[in-house]
Amino acid sequence: MNQASDALLGQGVECYIDDMVMRVCIDNGFFMKLAKYEWLRKEIPLLGHAVGKCGIKLQSGKVEVLSTVALPKDYSDKMQPLQELMNSQKTQNFA
């Protein structure tokens, strides 16, 4: 893809996998609503990560939530969720 668009590279044109996906969609008759796309982004969120020019990093909001979780202090704190699951008088909804 970079070779095919070599004349445009460096003039505000970057080439990514998205270009190839878009070409396959167009060639196979799929329609795309261009208003739903975001163009020229430096970084995109993807599956809990931020993907950009500098690489892949965790999204900061996801890390902050984990850092505020209280850690169990002793054995009984660790076993409490398992004991709640095994309680026959409670109904469990896993949906």
Summary keywords:
three-stranded antiparallel sheet, single chain, elongated, 95 residues, DNA/RNA_pol_sf, alpha+beta, 3 helices
The run of helices and strands is: HEEEHH
Binned strand content = 5-15%
Low-confidence stretches: none
Query: Largest beta sheet: what is the strand line-up?
Result: 1-2-3
Q: What would you call the structural class?
A: alpha+beta
Tell me the overall shape.
Answer: elongated
The whole-angstrom Rg is 24 Å
As a percent range, the share of helical residues equals: 25-40%
First-residue to last-residue Cα separation = 44 Å
Task: State mean pLDDT (0 to 100 scale).
Answer: 77
Number of helices: 3
Largest β-sheet summary: 3 strands, antiparallel
Helix-strand blueprint:
Layout: H1 17-27, E1 43-46, E2 49-52, E3 55-58, H2 60-67, H3 75-86
Antiparallel strand pairs: 1-2, 2-3
Descriptive account of the structure:
With 95 residues, this protein is of the alpha+beta class. Among the domains are: 1-37, no CATH class; 42-68, no CATH class. The protein is 33% helix and 13% strand. The protein has helices at 17-27, 60-67, 75-86, and strands at residues 43-46, 49-52, 55-58. A 3-stranded antiparallel sheet has the order 1-2-3. β1 and β2 form a beta hairpin. It starts with 16 loop residues before the first helix and ends in a 9-residue tail after the last helix. The mean pLDDT is 77.
